[in-house]
Amino acid sequence: MLIKIKSTRDTAVGTFIHGIIYDLNMKNFATKKAVDSMIENKAAVKLTDKQAKKEREAVVSLVTADTADEVALADLADAEKAVKAANADRDAAQNEVKDLTASAETAATDAQAALDAAITERDAARQEVEDLKTSAVATKPDTAK
Asked: Model-level pTM?
């Protein structure tokens, strides 16, 4: 059912505001009770589809068409600026990721080189220990005589 509110009312189903046309489901008991009470108190009137259409057409916009176009163009310009700023931020973030990736790769390469050098040094020390053991056994005097 279509109703137009003539006087703002707070009801159990919500607030109905003056001048607004509502299309309500009257199958809900609480809605039916609230609407019937408003109609009885002349705070609302029933409308037909034709009356509601006429009422809606009678409402004149407070913004002229030219002003609306200017607002839309300004909004578009603002949106374009926002997109450019977002793209610049994205590009900066991508460049930072590339720089961090390169730094991480360099650090990984340096760490691998240090590890390889430590392993080589360890192996050389092991070999030196083995060589010293071998030479100590070979140069040990025979005391068993």
From this structure: 0.40
Kindly state the helix (H) or strand (E) to which residue 12 belongs, with its residue range: none
Domain parsing of the chain, residue ranges: 2-58, 62-137
Q: For the chain, give the longest Cα–Cα distance.
A: 135
62 pLDDT more than 80: no
Which residues pair with residue 45 across a beta bridge? 4
For 33-52, the DSSP string reads HHHHHHHHTTSEEEE-HHHH
CA distances from 120 to 19, 26, 114 (A): 89, 88, 10
| Token pair listed for 78 | 């603002």
Q: Quick one: CA dihedral 101, 107, 113, 116, positive or negative?
A: negative
| pLDDT tens-place string over residues 82-132 | 999 999 999 999 999 999 999 999 999 999 999 999 999 999 999 999 998
CB-side neighbour CA atoms (13 Å) of 56: 12
- Strand 21-23 relative to strand 44-47, pairing: unpaired
H or E element that contains 22: strand 21-23
